[in-house]
Amino acid sequence: MSFTATRIPNEIIEEVLTKTDLAKVIGRYVALKKNGKNYTALCPFHGEKTPSFTISTDKQLYHCFGCGEGGNAITFLTKHAKIPFYQAISDLAQEVGVYISPQDIAKNETQTKTKMLHQALKYAEEFYIKQLKAPLGLQARQYLISRGLDGKTMDEFGVGFSPNAWDGLKNYLKEKKIDDSVSLEVGLFTEKQQTGHVYDRFRHRIMFPIKDARGRTVGFGGRTLSDEKPKYLNSPETPVFHKNKCLYGLYHAEKNSKENYFILVEGYLDVLSLVQFGIHSAIATLGTATSEEHLQMLFKLRSEIIFCFDGDAAGHQAAWRALIKVLPLLQEGRIIKFIFLPEGDDPDSYIRKHGTEQFQLNIKQATSLTDYLLKHIFNSLSITDQQALTIEQKAAIIHESKTYIQKVPVGFYKKLMIQKLAHITQLDEESLEQGISGKKVFSGYSSSNSYSSLNTAIKKEMGTMPEHNLPADNYSAKEGYSAKPWTAQKYFNKKQPRPNPFLPTHLSSTNNAQQSLDHFALEDRIVRILYRSPQLAALLTNFQFLKESEKNSGQLLYKCIEFLAQQPEQNLSYLHGFLHGNTLGLYLDELIARGEFVLSKEEETNELESSYRQLQLRFYQQALDKELRKQPPNIERLTELMQLQKNLKEKLS
């Protein structure tokens, strides 16, 4: 079996290297001497009398301290045995039982093709930048200067110019050995259907490269310098460019803005002008309405989005469409605001007239989503005086608001919107909430964190439960549950878990059998222990590695430790309420519903520390494996990780 080197996937190569015994491979060509865990030998790459060639069995790497040669099994076979790269991989794969399937090859071919597409786009960006600075780009430069843009900003964003020619870019890419089919697929060329002739898509336009999250050019937006329609022309949908998943300026904002918000504007020049004036958090959609994909992507990066559209009717319509789109995504911790500019202004013209300080003041005074929603409803109902509402006006406000509030997910955000509407209409909040949801709802509890403050709300929702069943007598936020038995012995077993007020009755842990410790993942064990004894969170230091976890369990544990570190007087019931309705909240609901394992205070502490060290050990092992796969690996980082791993193993033994 043999394949070209470029067609064998990297993950297959890494698997082959992981399973290969390097000493066994090199031992076929060189006499090795055992030296502890490692091996030494006379270097096969240069003449020497004293062995300076070392093989590390842990790292599966060789290195000569005499001539500097080093690498892995594949490197050795290609350099010393002179075996072709692809043949070396193929032979080692057969030896260690790794099958290189046609599906793996097809996957790698897709990756290779994607690299070719990105390369074509990179060359196109180079071409457009050169043309802007060439004599042909004089008109484009004059236009950009007339709009107030400086050279630094244009260079930062890679602004260019496509000349008024049918084959300017085509000839340039031909010199770079880029096939026409690649340029067609990535949207740089257009094909004439009748003749099959291909030509440049963008002609006589100022070019704005569109970057992905990694800073790679994935498409272009072009503004015409003539009366040609359309005024703005974007790249078509391609394998690497999707308008609903790309935002102009996002890569720059992520790299340069220290703010916890994005300012979403409408145009390329709006972004460039704001950045030039020091507002680095500006981004723009690509001639399309703000999509759910855009919003979800932004909320993963920042907690706040500020919409700033043009001050004309079209700008207000765009803002309203954005509000409708964002309603189903609202939850605790997410903030939406709006800046409304004077009629006739856009962000570009406004900041040039009034300066950075005034624009930053507008950011601070931006209108909240709820205020904008209510203002829009008042305007649609021609209500000018909110202080003297008639019964008919109040009913109309509730009727109009209901449609929008129903789109908001259940949680504190929705509850606070209903509170504000109740205040405006002077209607009972609980009745209003029932009217909007169409069903009886749990009315909540006071902002106090103790279980005692929940008594009234719980008695109202669980009327059949006697008052002394409430677990307030042996709980404190600082100490957790005391060893004192729960007083409701005639209703529940002494060791029965206490009811969770955030769970529906059918999910309550009181309805589930107690689970053994082994049935819980390491992350879940720690969360359950912290739920009962939040003061133990002080034992968990250096927990930032959990932020990199791709699992809900790891993300939830990170949130719990972070919360308790910042608010040591609180407990996780408080956090549970804020997570209610989102992914982590649902995961925590299910975890609580699975039942409890019963441990003494000493056992709790020991289990928490042991589980946490095992988590750290797993993280260091994964980081070590990742570092070993690099060519060449960072020896200092490897040494650091191995020492950390060793220290943890000693603590666990």
Account of the 3D structure:
The chain is of the alpha+beta class and 653 residues long. The chain folds into five domains: 5-100, DNA Primase, Chain A; 106-241, DNA primase DNAg catalytic core, N-terminal domain; 250-365, Dna Topoisomerase Vi A Subunit, Chain: A, domain 2, CATH 3.40.1360.10; 379-437, no CATH class; 490-653, DNAb Helicase, Chain A, CATH 1.10.860. Helices cover 46% and strands 11% of the residues. The protein has a five-stranded antiparallel sheet with strand order 1-2-3-4-5, covered by helices on one side. A hairpin with a 4-residue loop joins strand 3 (53-56) and strand 4.
Descriptive keywords:
single chain, 653 residues, alpha+beta, DNA Primase, Chain A, DNA primase DNAg catalytic core, N-terminal domain, Dna Topoisomerase Vi A Subunit, Chain: A, domain 2, 5 domains, five-stranded antiparallel beta sheet, five-stranded mixed beta sheet, 25 helices, flat
